[in-house]
Design brief:
179 residues, alpha/beta, Rossmann fold, 47% helix, 17% strand, globular, kinase, P-loop_NTPase
Length: 179
């Protein structure tokens, strides 16, 4: 029987890949961020971490507008990041599928990636507001179990607090049309 050392020596050499990347997303609710995240997951390949899916599984009774949601979501993001770091360390890209609404949020995740030694890319998914509203209303009516329930007023409210990315944020920004 071959020893582990002999088996290891006869394996193909490992492929050399560029440093894995942290993919961040921003855009209106209903813009197509999760659709893009799924496309990236397949095309790159990458491991996708959806905050909505984790939160809706871990805390199904907590609405995103509830007082305790923000703290639970931050804790969940940190847990996701610990897991994502392991994936990155293994040489695979990750997609953090949650909205980077503001320059401050984008800076936080850019800095986390950089501190861990990985580049970050921001995908700005651009969709007209009315199209985003139509998509969210359709998604909500369809009962998607892994998406938060929103109505047109909620989308308009969240669109009012969204800050589009700018060239001074220290990130590579890839603007894409809504999915």
């Amino acid at each position: 029987m071959d020893s582990y050392a002999n088996q290891k020596a006869t394996r193909r050499p490992a492929m050399v890949h560029p440093r894995p990347t942290v993919h961040l997303l921003c855009g209106l609710n209903g813009a197509g961020k999760t659709t893009l995240a799924r496309e990236l997951q397949t095309a790159l390949p990458a491991v996708r971490f959806s905050l909505d899916e984790w939160m809706l599984r871990l805390y199904p009774g907590v609405h995103f507008a509830a007082a305790e949601y923000a703290g639970l979501a931050e804790t969940c993001k940190l847990l996701i990041w610990e897991t994502a770091r392991q994936v990155l360390d293994s040489g695979t890209d990750v997609v953090l599928d949650w909205n980077q609404w503001s320059p401050q949020r984008r800076a936080l995740w850019r800095e986390k990636a950089a501190a861990a030694g990985f580049p970050a890319v921001l995908h700005h998914v651009q969709t007209p507001l009315e199209t985003a509203i139509e998509r969210v209303v359709t998604r909500t009516a369809g009962g998607d179990p892994w998406a938060h329930r929103l109505d047109a007023g909620g989308v308009r409210h969240l669109a009012g607090i969204f800050e589009p990315p700018g060239p001074d944020e220290g990130l590579e920004i890839r603007s894409v049309s809504g999915r």
